């Protein structure tokens, strides 16, 4: 599997299997490690870079925080931030599909 979108879709179905607990920080750490294992093989690596920009704009982030930090800041806790991530991720996927 060399698609960041595919791996996130799998994590969304069974988060505990991949990241151990419902935590935005665990997700971020997992995705960073998964991506950095061999970035040249990831077919859609730009997806998360674009997602970062979307999250920064939507939440009007004024500093250089990662998407995970922005979502955590706008949530009650790590678990709620993970739920928010999957909501934002799904919305972004739909937008990309519509826009082509």
* Rg, Å, rounded: 13 Å
| Helix content estimate | over 70%
| Counted beta strands | 0
Instruction: Briefly note the structural class of the backbone.
Output: mainly alpha
For the report, how would you describe the main beta sheet? Answer: none
- Beta-strand content estimate: under 5%
Please count the helical segments.
6
Poorly predicted runs: none
* Quaternary structure annotation: single chain
Globally, the shape reads globular
Give the count of structural domains: 1
Sketch the topology as an H/E string, one letter per element.
HHHHHH
**First-last Cα distance:** 22 Å
Average pLDDT over all residues: 94
What do you see in this structure?
By secondary structure, the chain is mainly α. The chain has one domain. The chain is built from six helices and no strands. It has helices at 4-13, 15-19, 24-36, 46-58, 67-73, 78-99. Helix 3 (24-36) packs antiparallel against helix 5 (67-73) and helix 5 (67-73) crosses helix 6 (78-99).
Descriptive terms for the model:
100 residues, mainly alpha, 6 helices, 0% strand, globular
Present the secondary structure layout.
Elements: H1 4-13, H2 15-19, H3 24-36, H4 46-58, H5 67-73, H6 78-99
Quick recap of the structure?
The chain has 100 residues and is mainly alpha-helical. Helices cover 70% and strands 0% of the residues.
């Amino acid at each position: 599997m060399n698609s960041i979108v595919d791996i996130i879709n799998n994590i969304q179905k069974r988060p505990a299997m991949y990241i151990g607990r419902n935590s935005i920080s665990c997700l971020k750490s997992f995705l960073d490690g998964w991506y950095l294992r061999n970035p040249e093989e990831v077919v859609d690596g730009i997806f998360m870079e674009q997602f970062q920009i979307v999250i920064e704009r939507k939440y009007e982030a004024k500093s250089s925080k990662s998407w995970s930090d922005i979502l955590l800041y706008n949530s009650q806790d790590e678990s709620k931030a993970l739920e928010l991530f999957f909501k934002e991720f799904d919305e972004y996927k739909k937008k990309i599909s519509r826009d082509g």
